[in-house]
Amino acid sequence: MNKNLSKKIPASYYQQEDVVAIAKDLIGKKIVSNINDQLTSGIITETEAYRGYDDKACHAHLGKFTDRTKVMYEDGGVAYVYLCYGIHNLFNIITNSKDQADAILIRAVEPVDGVEVMLERRNKLKLDKTLTSGPGNFSKAFALDKSHYGAFLTGDLVWIEENDQFRFRESEITTTTRIGIDYAQEDKDLPWRFYLNTSKFISKR
DNA sequence: AACGGGATTCACT
DNA sequence: GTGAATCCCGTTT
């Protein structure tokens, strides 16, 4: 009774090699934040993979190492958060082993726990798909910002859980191209975005 | 010290 | 569909 209802994913999961496979596998899992004693959770519905050295869309392309990107080179299982367009905190999970600099951007979730808290954080009155779809919107609803740069996904602020109760078919996952990376030349067309097409909480179909 | 741009969102036409 | 908002950071001077 009441077993397996809360299974935090361990660091070894994030340290697997294939960032694209992990990005797809994260669909359907549950992401949780517990910030200022306010717990929010949701089902991951949309992700994008960014692959370290090779990927022209990745901030760590060709080993670029700066104050912003340095956490990407840590062992998998930490958060990489950065400010985009001066407004939006984008939340990523670093994967693979040290120095590989692979990352997965969380682009959308379907809210589960803490909807009232999310509404307050987003200055909204009613739940609709914009509450937690789109990477900036998700981060704001879950109160994830630059203060979580480098946070361990094995810690107590933000983590991901197995979600065995949530079932879906393989055909419910759409594989397509990433968004907002037109500068990445030929890599802009890599099929490294995944979303659960039966959810309405998707940034773009 | 200055400059330019971005893994976006929202309001408006 | 178009454009403004907004600021940190990486690059250049």
What is the CATH class? Answer: Alpha Beta
Count of beta strands: 8
Amino-to-carboxy terminus distance: 39 Å
The helicity comes to 10-25%
CATH architecture: Roll
Number of domains: 1
Category from helices, strands and their pairing: alpha+beta
Specify the CATH homologous superfamily: Methylpurine-DNA glycosylase (MPG)
Please state the overall shape, judged from the principal axes of the Cα atoms.
globular
Radius of gyration (CA) equals 16 Å
CATH topology: 3-methyladenine DNA Glycosylase, Chain A
Keywords: DNA damage, DNA repair, Hydrolase
Enzyme class: hydrolase
Protein name: Putative 3-methyladenine DNA glycosylase
Organism: Nonlabens xylanidelens
Short account of what is shown:
With 205 residues, the protein is an alpha+beta fold. 12% of the residues lie in helices and 28% in strands. It has four helices and eight strands, in the order ααβββββααβββ.
Walkthrough of the structure:
Strands 1, 2, 3, 4, 5, 6, 7 and 8 form an 8-stranded antiparallel β-sheet that branches. Helices cover 12% and strands 28% of the residues. The model has no long low-confidence stretch (mean pLDDT 96). It has a single domain (11-196), classed as 3-methyladenine DNA Glycosylase, Chain A (Roll). The chain has helices at 11-14, 19-25, 115-121, 135-141; strands at residues 30-35, 38-51, 79-84, 88-95, 102-113, 158-161, 173-176, 193-196. With 205 residues, the chain is α+β, with helices and mostly antiparallel strands. The protein contains 4 helices and 8 strands. The protein binds a DNA duplex (13 and 13 nucleotides) through residues 48, 50, 57-59, 64, 66-68, 82-88, 90, 92, 103, 105, 107, 130, 134-137, 146, 178-181, 183-184, 203.
